[in-house]
Amino acid sequence: MLDSDLANLYDVDTGALNRAVKRNQDRFPADFCFQLTEEEAESLRCHFGISKTKGGRRYLPYAFTEQGVAMLSSVLKSRRAVLVNVQIMRIFVQLREMLISNRELAKKLSTLKKNTIINLRLCLMPSGN
Fold it and tell me: What's the pLDDT band for 86 if we cut at 50, 70, 90?
């Protein structure tokens, strides 16, 4: 999730969120939070139709992984931050469950396809009468 989206959810200024993260850098290793490259930010602007002015931003946006979002609750100490964080964690769990379910469904479809091909070949084989 992007810093601006999280700041909106937590009802804080994006700059304040990023300052809190920078004050606690040891809690946010690269696999928890990272700054987008210019190319990635441009791709987002093109993909989502965001203005080229970066919305008044002077810095490239930061992106947070699931673990980074979880860590934000220890940095942002408001009641709202805790409540929002709990909801975000629940959403991540639901997304993981959906991915697992889709993988299982894909496996079942693959097995069904293989069985159908085998059965079709058996039906089409000349009988040995």
Answer: confident
